Amino acid sequence: MFHQLTIQNVAKETPDSVAITFDVPTDLNGAFDWKPGQYLTLRTEINGEDLRRSYSIASLPGKALTVGVKQVEDGKFSTFAQGLKAGDTLQVMPPEGRFTPRGEARLVLIAAGSGITPMVSIAADELAKGHEVTLVYGNRATGSIMFREALDALKDRYTDRFTLIHILSREPQDVDLLNGRISGEKVAALGKAGAIDLTGADGVYLCGPGDMIDDVTATLEGAGVARDKIHFERFYEDGDAPRAPKSAAAAAAAEKGVTVEVILDGTRRIFEFGAQDETIVDAAARQGLELPYSCKGGMCCTCRCKVEEGSAEMAINYSLEPWELEAGFTLGCQARPTSEKLVLDFDAA
């Protein structure tokens, strides 16, 4: 799953963020072919602890594979990443993710903080295709704007098709509407002022803190934007996300013991899920089997799999869409069996 890649360059984007560019060997070009909006899972060991984190690809079309990493308070991996340099190596999983445009001609992108990373690639690629893009980007101040030079270059190049709106919370701007934080109310006000066209957009893409995404999504739906036109990506939550307690069925199944069979890379493997296990990924790890995962927070979909037999519930889900739930997909890092046997296909599309 992971490949060791050498870091080609590390550029300081802001005082607390870096852009890390990888050198992908020719024989791995196919594996690391990516779409704008996808992410990479990076892995390293820090003080004996195996750490994995997902970071969105921020590359411009035709440019080297790059991710943006912003340091977060008490963030082990993000703090470690600030000290990386050219020539260092990291374990990297091939690109994943479905936060990708669907051929829309008019897009509205809304990002806060490091949520800009997938939007840089999306905006650049869509503009190159001749599409119209409006980007609303929230930050504390000008100095905390990641990929500012790249965004300014896009604005200068596509003056008639790219609208860039900066919202700053700690640096006053001349237009009062552009001060504060991105919220549902702020987005509605921008729409009312004619700064963005919400109902005329073919797709609206959100990336940032969970509370921002929930608030803006509710506003968009209230304004008449169809739910299937709204797409979002989360990589973190403020504090511990609330997790549903085990249901009576899940508790009973775990106490009795569940036989779990997984299909991964065309191979079937079997292990047991017991009362000591919280999730499928945890149970597999306890018995020496490494399943795909990254965030362990129900947000990134690296552990997405399909229930082929039996049943399972999830403690939390921020990434699977309604159609996926109806089709039987679940998240391995959140799944708890509710049947005596559970078969999961990690190869299912």
TrEMBL record:
InterPro entries: 2Fe-2S_ferredoxin-like_sf, 2Fe-2S_ferredoxin-type, Beta-grasp_dom_sf, Cbr1-like_FAD-bd_dom, FAD-bd_FR_type, FNR_nucleotide-bd, MRET, OxRdtase_FAD/NAD-bd. Keywords: 2Fe-2S, FAD, Flavoprotein, Iron, Iron-sulfur, Metal-binding, Oxidoreductase. Residues 1-102 form the FAD-binding FR-type domain. Pfam families: FAD_binding_6, Fer2, NAD_binding_1. Residues 258-349 form the 2Fe-2S ferredoxin-type domain. It comes from the Bacteria. GO terms for molecular function: 2 iron, 2 sulfur cluster binding; flavin adenine dinucleotide binding; metal ion binding; oxidoreductase activity. The keyword Metal-binding applies. Its cofactor is FAD. This is 2Fe-2S iron-sulfur cluster binding domain-containing protein. The lineage of its organism: Bacteria, Pseudomonadati, Pseudomonadota, Alphaproteobacteria, Rhodobacterales.
